[in-house]
Write a structure and sequence with these properties.
The complex is a heterotrimer of chains A (246), B (361) and C (389). Chain A has 246 residues and is of the alpha/beta class. In chain A, 39% of the residues lie in helices and 26% in strands. Chain A contains 9 helices and 10 strands. In chain A, a hairpin with a 2-residue loop joins strand 4 and strand 5. Helices cover 72% and strands 0% of the residues of chain B. By secondary structure, chain C is mainly α. Chain C has a 3-stranded antiparallel beta sheet with strand order 1-2-7. In chain C, a hairpin with a 2-residue loop joins strand 1 and strand 2. Classes of the chains: A alpha/beta (246), B mainly alpha (361), C mainly alpha (389). Chains in contact: A-B, A-C, B-C. Chains B and C meet through helix 1, helix 2, helix 8, helix 9 and helix 16 of B and helix 2, helix 4, helix 5, helix 10 and helix 11 of C.
Chain lengths: 246, 361, 389
């Protein structure tokens, strides 16, 4: 069993001729919680989407839970099963109920029987504190509720690793905390998490390490205390003053 | 132009007279235009009603009265309706033809009920309805005397061709659409070329090619009956148009839907079957219904290839020496049959469009 | 080994190769079977038959054609007939369709009612039924012996519609059409070509004006030069005895096709125009009112131009589709391209080659229509990305 959840070595990605990710090196151990931050256009979303092959990298290695992310279709399928993802725009399936959203993948992909899948789904829905919405449709829920359902849906696959791509950026301010609370709870239960976010309070509270990216490169990383109190790089300092200043 | 709301200056709703005045006679030009048009319409209506009802002859077998009268001769319908609806189907078995058509009408009506908007249920509904249709028409089972395809005619033949084209064409359309949207460039571009080429050709030439030309290029075992060759050709044509409609529906889907399915580990067929296609069809429902309506209308072209569909049977009904003067009345009858089907389906399509538009977030 | 099969690139390449390969095998199989079947029947394949003379007549032809003309000429005649029918029908369909579309959005209750009835009746009945109806109506007109001329120059008879025309050679008629097409193309080119984008609108208009002057001169000169000797300039139908002499006879087949396709097309075009009008935000009309423009001015200068620009892509599709509808002429034996090809197949047996020619001909025409209309669309469409309409 590999000690590392994610191992990225010398990874480069291009959009056509545009070099969007430059020589990325990143290690995430099991049980670690990483927060990736940085200005827009820095490539943080692209990086996290490369991990489960929603985007393809051109050179370098990405290894997830001991499986190398290469051209082998079995490898890609396995990585997608073990890594759960939560999107900025929730991406719930609008033509299915909440319960069906959560049970679809376990039934089809993990071949779990329907009764058991529903039981697991109800447990996770209870954990994100909306079990009563199980038979409603996504369109009938608020943004914060939908995002919590999205987290539950990802958890129903029992992943080893959770990826969050700006999970609160599309939410109205009063709903952000309910989602962050769920994520904090997840962290306290020991889930390996990689989270792209602007929520610095969350980073301070939960992260084992904060990674700062700009212009497609990892500029600086460190434990929250050192990162926020004593940033080394000038770019980091500028960014932090902009984000924390108001 | 004219602002149509029925609240007058003092805020009270105007009377019906006021509403009519606003709609038809609001300005000076309106008054002139409305009056002139009204006169023209009234003149036309008077003549038509005169021809169709006042001077017309109703009831069967009144040929001599028809020849003497100035108005329409509806007796031709009363005497010859069986030919129009059933063609040359044997007289005693025509009830089977009628019941079969009724079953297809019921299938069409049920397809409009949201309960059936589910791939499994629709497939079961159409396949079983079509199966019953075929058994009833063809006979040879359950003690029914066999009646072969050469003797099928009239409305029943039109309905048969239409249903067969839809049942064959819809799955084909899904396959074409998925191939067209493939991420593999050779496949998507080749498919695009095929679809665009077939869509550029007139339906008549495609039917003609499959009916007359294909026996030359097919091995003997694949030739089959002319009726089924034409159905296959028409189904491919239908599939090309419907594939573009489905593709439009898929493109209207946010990219995040497929990404979420990928992130959950779902494979290609699971993604397409559970997430992409159900939503794409909801998006594409109004144009799909439009396409089905047009398909029903264009089925009338098979008469040119020599099939005895409802157009040909109409001409046959007024084609004998007895009733040859009354072809206009028969045309009206056939037109009415088409009009009823086509109009109701397109109204339903318009209703769906409004309903789905409102329900969308 | 298994690893290679699981490799995404390997899979993708083999799927693509398999797909294209299967298609090629299918096409080759069809061609081979076709060739062997034809040879078994003693027919040669190949396109040499195009030089043979046909031996059969064509009822309507715009250029000289006799029974000893070669097959390729017969195909050209058919093609010209289709283009001729298409051009006339599409033009009429546009006029009528725009008129009905305007009626449906006019705000006048009576006009809307008539417009709606027109659209619903002619859209919901199959084209072939409408065609047969008009044809039987035209055939039941009085015979030339009994028909009286209308306005002294038009005669509606069961053997055709007689209209006055010009006495010029067929060749000069073609040259005139060619000149008009050339003039329109030059005008279009001036509007859309990149080379002229830098020039101001006034300069481009000046050049277009010159182009049309040149075209007009060419047309008039051709008419003058192409006059038939010893005939009057105008040919007006005259009732002489049992028949009509002079004038141009429009056969009932052609006339029925024109009426049917024009009306059917008009019903569809009217709907498209109506949706175009509905897509114009109310604010446009309100701005016009606020500026003091009259209803008619708002309609002709603001709403109508906008509606046409909005629906141009849909209209292009509709025109291509309508042109394909001209094949319906075969139902009443109008010798369009399709009918000529099918007669040729009957007479010569060269099925595969003729089908290929048929499909090729339609593809070329459809792509040409789409290409030209897309250039027009580019010329008139609303420019820029910041439009808040």
């Amino acid at each position: 069993m590999s000690e590392h959840a994610i191992l990225i070595r010398n990874m480069n990605k291009y959009y056509g001729s545009f070099h969007v990710l430059k020589n990325i090196n990143l290690e995430v151990k099991r049980g670690e919680r990483i927060v990736i931050c940085g200005p827009s256009g820095s490539g943080k979303s692209t990086l996290i989407r490369c991990i489960n092959r929603l985007e393809e990298h051109q050179s370098g290695d990405i290894e997830v839970m001991g499986t190398m992310l290469d051209e082998n279709v079995d490898h890609i399928d396995e990585i997608r099963r073990e890594a759960g993802m939560v999107f900025q725009n929730f991406n719930l399936f609008p033509h299915m109920t909440i319960l069906e959203n959560c049970t679809l993948a376990p039934i089809l992909v993990r071949k779990i029987d329907r009764v058991e899948a529903e039981k697991t789904a109800m447990e996770y829905l209870a954990r994100v504190k909306i079990p009563e919405q199980a038979n409603k449709y996504p369109g009938e829920l608020s943004g914060g509720q939908q995002q919590r359902v999205a987290i539950a849906r990802a958890l129903c696959m029992n992943p080893e690793l959770m990826l969050f791509d700006e999970p609160t950026s599309a939410l109205d301010p009063e709903m952000i905390s309910e989602v962050l609370d769920v994520m904090v709870g997840l962290a306290e239960d020991g889930m390996t998490m990689v989270c792209v976010t602007h929520e610095m309070g969350f980073a301070r509270q939960v992260a084992d390490r904060v990674v700062f990216m700009a212009d497609g490169q990892v500029i600086e990383q460190g434990e929250p205390e050192t990162f926020f109190e004593n940033p080394q790089n000038d770019r980091t300092k500028t960014f932090l003053s902009q984000v924390l200043g108001h | 132009m004219s602002i149509s709301n029925s609240v007058s200056h003092d805020g009270m709703r105007t009377s019906m007279f006021g509403a009519i005045r606003k709609k038809y006679f609001a300005t000076r030009t309106d008054i002139i235009v409305s009056s002139v048009l009204a006169v023209a319409v009234v003149w036309l209506l008077v003549n038509v009603i005169d021809w169709a009802f006042v001077n017309a002859v109703f009831g069967a077998g009144k040929r001599e009265e028809c020849l003497a009268a100035e108005g329409a001769c509806w007796s031709v319908i009363a005497s010859r309706w069986r030919i129009v609806l059933f063609g040359l189907y044997p007289f005693e078995e025509q009830w089977r033809s009628g019941v079969a058509c009724l079953i297809m009408v019921i299938v069409a009506v049920l397809s409009c009920v949201p309960y059936f908007w589910n791939a499994k249920r629709l497939t079961v509904l159409w396949l079983s309805g079509f199966g019953i249709f075929y058994v009833l028409m063809r006979g040879g089972f359950l003690g029914l005397t066999p009646v072969f395809e050469q003797n099928w005619g009239g409305l029943a033949l039109t309905v048969f061709i239409f249903a067969a084209v839809c049942i064959l064409g819809m799955p084909l359309a899904i396959v074409f659409a998925l191939l067209r949207r493939s991420e593999l460039p050779w496949i998507s571009r080749t498919m695009g070329l095929i679809i665009d080429t077939i869509r550029s050709l007139p339906l008549l030439t495609i039917m003609f090619t499959f009916a007359i030309v294909s026996p030359f290029v097919l091995p003997d075992w694949a030739i089959g009956d002319k009726l089924y060759r034409v159905i296959v050709g028409y189904a491919i044509f239908f599939a090309c148009y419907q594939a573009e409609i489905i593709r439009g529906g898929i493109q209207a889907l946010p990219a995040g839907q497929e990404e979420a399915a990928k992130a959950l580990g779902m494979g290609y067929w699971h993604r397409v079957g559970y997430i992409v296609l159900p939503q794409a069809f909801r998006n594409a429902l109004p144009p799909t219904i439009n396409q089905i309506v047009i398909t029903f209308k264009e089925t009338s072209l098979v008469t040119i290839i020599g099939f005895f569909d409802v157009m040909a049977s109409g001409r046959a009904a007024s084609g004998n020496a007895e009733w040859s003067f009354a072809h206009v009345e028969v045309y009206f009858f056939v037109a009415l049959i088409f009009f009823v089907f086509v109009f109701s389906l397109s109204r339903y399509g318009a209703y769906l469009e409004r309903r789905l538009g409102v329900g969308r977030r | 080994m298994i690893a290679i099969l699981k490799n995404r690139h390997v899979r993708d390449t083999s799927f693509q190769a398999g797909f294209v390969g299967a298609l090629i095998i299918l096409i080759v199989a069809l061609v081979v079977t076709g060739k062997s079947n034809l040879e078994a029947q003693g027919l040669t394949s190949g396109f040499d038959f195009l030089e043979r003379s046909t031996g059969w007549r064509i009822s309507f032809s715009l250029i000289d054609y006799t029974t000893s003309s070669p097959y390729w000429l017969a195909l050209v005649v058919g093609l010209l007939n289709s283009v001729f029918l298409g051009a006339i029908s599409l033009s009429f369909a546009t006029f009528i369709g725009v008129a009905v579309g305007v009626m449906r959005t006019s705000g006048n209750g009576m006009a809307e009612l008539i417009g709606t009835t027109f659209v619903e009746i002619f859209r919901n009945v199959p084209l072939i039924l409408q065609l047969l109806f008009w044809y039987s109506l035209l055939l039941s007109l009085p015979s030339p012996r009994d028909a009286e001329p209308i306005l002294g120059a038009f005669a509606f008879t069961g053997r055709g519609i007689y209209i006055p025309g010009l006495n010029i050679t067929g060749l000069s008629f073609f040259l005139i059409v060619l000149a008009l097409v050339a003039g329109a193309s030059v005008s279009l080119w001036l509007s859309t070509a990149d080379r002229f984008k830098a020039a101001s609108v006034a300069v481009r208009r000046k050049w277009k004006f010159y182009a049309w002057i040149v075209t007009a001169i060419v047309v008039i000169a051709t008419i003058w030069w192409g006059r038939l000797p010893e005939t009057a300039f105008f040919s007006i139908p005259e009732h002489r005895g049992l028949n009509y002499r002079e004038g141009i006879r429009v056969s009932p087949e052609l006339f029925a096709c024109i009426i049917a396709i024009s009306i059917y097309g008009a019903a569809y075009i009217a709907e498209i125009i109506r949706s175009g009008f509905n897509a114009i935000p109310a604010g446009q009309g309100e701005a016009g009112h606020a500026l003091g423009l009259s209803r008619w001015q708002i309609f002709t200068r603001i709403r109508l131009p906008l509606a046409i620009r909005i629906v141009m892509p849909t209209l292009i599709n509709q025109y291509v589709w309508l042109f394909k509808a001209t094949t319906i002429g075969i139902a009443i034996s109008f010798t369009d391209f399709f009918m000529v090809v099918s007669t040729a197949i009957n007479q010569s047996g060269q099925t595969l080659e003729l089908i290929a020619i048929l499909m090729g001909g339609f593809l070329v025409i459809n792509y040409s229509i789409a290409w030209v209309l897309n250039r027009v669309n580019d010329a008139i469409k609303l420019k820029g990305t910041q439009l808040r309409i």
